Amino acid sequence: MAAISHTPLTAQQPQPGLRERKKLKTRTAIRGAAFRLIAKQGYEATTVEQIAEASEVSPSTVFRYFPTKEDIVLTDEYDPVMASVLRSRPAGESPLESIRFLFDQTLQSMLTSEYDEAIQRTKLMVEVPAVRARMTETMSVSAKLLGDVLAERTGRAPDDLELRIFIAAMLSVVREVTLYWGERGNQDDLRVLVHDALDSVADGLRL
Q1: Which residues bind DNA (predicted)?
Q2: 128 and 166 both lie in a single domain
Q3: What pLDDT, on a 0 to 100 scale, did the predictor assign at position 152?
């Protein structure tokens, strides 16, 4: 497995300006309020109005940052950072190894700095069909960001079919492994599970 920095991934990037920091503070407050309310009273019983009140913003502000309630628990700050990290990988490194490094770094950062949220988010992904369905929909955003970077690195067009299939396969690995991890009570090492799953994809399904 690739060597890991123990500094949170988001902290390794240039610090945003004042406006972006204010937006991040608001998003973080809304997410934090949502997770606290959901832990106390359940996902279905928690309304956007309650989340807005608990985070001291208006419901319209919540919807401005998060189009749906599912987005509140699924959205994080990692997509732009992931694109930056992937873009910085060595030119001669294979796309699979670049993605392996990226996933490993992202998971390390998430499980170090946002462990409780990661556990709760995974629980909701497993238990709430609407959250699981929205997660699948929002993967297209990550696919576009990572696909654009890999297109630059490989000289392929962003809509190249093999590139799209590769990105879809990589993100599906994370989705299925995360669900597997959550279904089993988060007992295993998620990073090891993803690492082994990527090996399985590379080797093919053995008989």
Answers
A1: 47-66
A2: yes
A3: 93
